[in-house]
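*** Fold description ***
***
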Amino acid sequence: MKKANKVFFGGDRVARNGDVANKIGTYMLALAASDNQVPVYCVVPTSTIDLSLPDGISIPIEERSQDEVLDIQFQGQKVTPKGSTARNPAFDVTPNHLLTGIITEKGIINPPFSKNLSKAVEGI
């Protein structure tokens, strides 16, 4: 039984092909929704769309200190093994194929995003 009819999330940056960088966990949310046939929408102002970035691989991702995830204590004792290392990205990238549409102040932009995002941003 579906408990959600649609999924909406924001975006920090949208590439020309519609890939979206947003807070960690957004990609997993979109995967779960897509796997359950729930439509997925990113909601952003057009100023967030960066046509100079061809795809999500090109979006710079902030890397936070590994101490945020390694310096965890339980009852006063560190729980991570000595010598452990970690990556701690602040954002993940949701691939455009998981999106039903991108909602902006100019309306809903549907796939193909490479063509339609340019139209929305440049007013073509």
